Amino acid sequence: MAIKAVALSPMAIAGGRGLVAGLFLLAVFFRQLDFRLHPAKVGAACCYAAMLLSNVAATKLTTAANAILLAYTAPIYVALLAPAVLGERTCRADWLAIGVTLAGMVLFFLDGLSPSGWWGNILAVGTGLAYAGFMLAMRAGREDSPLAAIVLGHGLTALVGLPFLVAGPPGTAGDWLGLGYLGLIQQGASLILYVWCIRRVAAVPAMLVLTLEPLCNPVWVAIGQGELPGPWAMAGGALVVGAVTLRGVAAARTMRRPAAA
Question: Using alpha carbons only, how large is the chain's radius of gyration in Å?
Fold first, then answer.
């Protein structure tokens, strides 16, 4: 809702948010960060920056529902790429979830979209791909410092977006407050809470709570901006969220199941 409300270009919003969030996270986690560069960390930072930039642009160009739900297809790309990148096997249930998700993605493009809406949807698909790359890189470098990769990602986002912010700075106090909220709360505080909670919450409830994001995102924007997703997008979103959630629950339960004697 804040991205929609701030009257700046997508790159300016992403750059300003990245700068505020990066500095905030750097201050909070300074003692825990290891900025020594390794291929997986660099890859994760680059993918994270691409995810942040494309998500803001997609949210501006298409509906919030389309932007978040198409980005939420990331686990499907992970399942497709994990065998080649990580040597981790993709099982039959993964392929079923991939098929259902791809069907859901097709439905998003059946709504009557403006040319900018089409580009927004394409960028949202790119967000999902970037998020998948981030998850794969984080998995490949799981012994490294994940928080450092995220802070570096915010730094890269700021480097790309700040020239746009300087060229067209906020014109109202509301826009400045919106940028501050996006950096401090929507990115910074949420990540701090996630890092704290993920150490204390089991995998299944943690994943189910995260599925509230693609469900609540369109609701907040509908309330604050009066923007409603089209019927095909709602149907496609139901397929995407259902497929990803059920596959995630099944995978988490398999991991918790004790091995046979």
Answer: 18
Q: How far apart are the C-alpha atoms of 54 and 60, rounded to whole Å?
A: 10
Give the separation between CA 130 and CA 55, rounded to whole angstroms: 10
Residue 256 tokens, joined: 């918790």
**Structure tokens, 228:** 């409603």
Q: 155: which 2 tokens?
A: 């730094």
- Cα Dmax for the chain: 67
Token pair 């949420």 is at which residue?
190
Take residue 195 and report the two structure tokens written for it.
Answer: 């890092």
Tokens of 86: 């990580």
Closest CA to 160 of 18, 60, 5: 18
Distance CA 173, CA 185 (A): 17
pLDDT digit string, tens, across residues 169-189: 998 999 999 999 999 999 999
The pTM score is: 0.83
Q: How far apart are CA 37 and CA 39, in angstroms?
A: 7
| pLDDT for 260 | 45
C-alpha distances in Å from residue 244, one per residue of 52, 137, 150, 200 = 21, 20, 24, 23
Q: Return the ∠ at Cα 81 (arms to 140 and 186), rounded to 5°.
A: 65
Q: Give the domain ranges of the chain.
A: 9-166+173-255
> 3-class DSSP state for residue 56?
helix
In degrees, to the nearest 5, what angle opens at C-alpha 23 toward C-alphas 180 and 216? 45
